[in-house]
Amino acid sequence: MSSANKRVTRLDSNYVREYDAYVERQNKRKKRLYRRLTLFAIVAVSVFAYLITFHLNQRELYKEKVSEYEQLNEELDKLEVKEKNLQQEIDLLNDTDYILQIARKDYFLSKDGEIIFNVPDDESSY
What we know:
Blueprint: H1 14-93, H2 96-107
Coiled coil: 59-96
Transmembrane segments: 37-56
Keywords: Coiled coil, Membrane, Transmembrane, Transmembrane helix
């Protein structure tokens, strides 16, 4: 027998047509299933990628905010020290003895009968 003689004739019966229709429906179901799974995978990967990018952006923003917070805290500490110094100066300026001392030192004012001698602070200039 040759390969040309091995042909099988297909029966044209109701059962064969129903079976062919069944196989075709199964193949279509498989195609639809694969399409749905592919679409779901694409959506899942897209959502996952978006969440990862969002998370990384939030981490970067958090680092920037922490850095800014630390910088502002340092500035606040400096301003609090400056405020404390200024408050001390205000308290001193309310004291008349301190004002008289400044007037004598900076403006060479004296009481009646006082003589003011200007002595350099640095003795190494001799």
